[in-house]
Amino acid sequence: MGRLRRSRVHKGIKDISKKYRLKRKTKDLDQIQADLLPENKPKLESFEIDPELPGLGQFYCIECTKHFTDATSKLKHIASKVHKRRLRQLKDTAYTQKEAEYAAGVGSGSSFSAESSSLLAITRKNKQASDSSKMIIE
Amino acid sequence: MRLEKCYFCSSTVYPGHGTMFVRNDSKTFRFCRSKCSKNYKMKRNPRKLKWTKAFRKAAGKEMAIDSTFEFEKRRNVPVRYNRDLMKTTLLAMKRVTEIKARRERAFYNQRMATKKDIEHSQNLVEIEKNIHVIATPATRSKLESERLSIISKSMDVDH
């Protein structure tokens, strides 16, 4: 049973091991947010004709970093749950190494403005929410 | 020697430990262990995982804004060794950690102060929602009448 054993251990779970691989790594959220900036967006909206890509590279969704074969499939994708979920994710400011360091207690306040540290903003927002709930309880 | 912070969980990465991922736009990501690196590859958001420092600070579980965080910083200019400076630095480090620990304890106590009340009100809501599980018909009607009397009392107080 040696042959079967190899595929039935944890390593053999294909969808998970594929998930971990960097071979098919797609763009991170911060890269997509950079793509969506007005100076970068026009470049991605008009792709040159590339026979290697699906739909000759003419139907590209910037938010989901995905090429489609034709206009109808792209429209269908834009109406889908996956695309809407991605839009929701992109609304938040992207997580950065700076934020990780801030969370670890390296520097604070002066070294981070409110815009650069989304964590600070989120903390303040959560605090306000909890304070208001406390008021209601009292 | 530089002690880096893990991109995902914000723990310290000592030299010779963890992995570094260099993205194709030459940005580097340091991970303290395979757990963090795998979670990054799965595109999980550290702010939404309860075991990361980013979550704990964002959710108000830990002290996030304090002056004691100002001392530890990424310094890119090397300092020439000076015995006196080293001595005072070591003393200051000890003192700062002391103060930080005290403030963290105070923060925790303050956070836990309202816990009992919140839990109590949550329990009351849960009992009211699931009363059919615990009560027989007789007790249920009794509880119902009690509840009504409480409501009418509070109404009287209002008027």
What is the CATH homologous superfamily assignment of the domain at 1-62 in chain B?
Ribosomal protein L24
- Supply the CATH architecture of the domain at 1-62 in chain B: Roll
Helix proportion range of chain B: 40-55%
Strand coverage percent of chain B: 5-15%
Oligomer: heterodimer
Helix and strand content put the structural class of chain A at: mainly alpha
CATH topology of the largest domain in chain A: Double Stranded RNA Binding Domain
- Reading side by side through the largest sheet of chain B, how are the strands ordered? 1-2
Anisotropy-based shape of chain A: extended
Could you tell me the radius of gyration of chain B in angstroms? 26 Å
Describe this structure in words.
Chain B: It is found in: Nucleus. Chain B: InterPro entries: L24e/L24_sf, Ribosomal_eL24, Ribosomal_eL24-rel_N, Ribosomal_eL24_CS, TRASH_dom. Chain B: Keywords: Nucleus, Ribosome biogenesis. Chain B: GO terms for molecular function: structural constituent of ribosome. Chain B: It comes from Smittium simulii. Chain A: Belongs to the ZNF593/BUD20 C2H2-type zinc-finger protein family. The complex is a heterodimer of chains A (138) and B (159). With 138 residues, chain A is mostly helical. Chain A has 2 domains: 68 residues, 2-Layer Sandwich (Double Stranded RNA Binding Domain); 44 residues. Helices cover 51% and strands 4% of the residues of chain A. Chain A has 8 helices and 2 strands; from the N terminus they run H-H-H-H-E-E-H-H-H-H. Chain A has a two-stranded antiparallel ribbon. In chain A, a hairpin with a 4-residue loop joins strand 1 and strand 2. The termini of chain A are far apart. In chain A, 12% of the residues are buried. By secondary structure, chain B is mostly helical. Among the domains of chain B are: 62 residues, Ribosomal Protein L24e, Chain: T (Roll); 43 residues, no CATH class. Chain B has 6 helices and 4 strands; from the N terminus they run E-E-E-E-H-H-H-H-H-H. In chain B, strands 1-2 form a two-stranded antiparallel sheet. In chain B, strands 3-4 form a two-stranded antiparallel sheet. In chain B, strand 3 and strand 4 form a beta hairpin. Chain B starts with a strand and ends with a helix. In chain B, 14% of the residues are buried. Classes of the chains: A mainly alpha (138), B mainly alpha (159). Chains A and B meet through helix 7 and helix 8 of A and helix 2 and helix 4 of B.
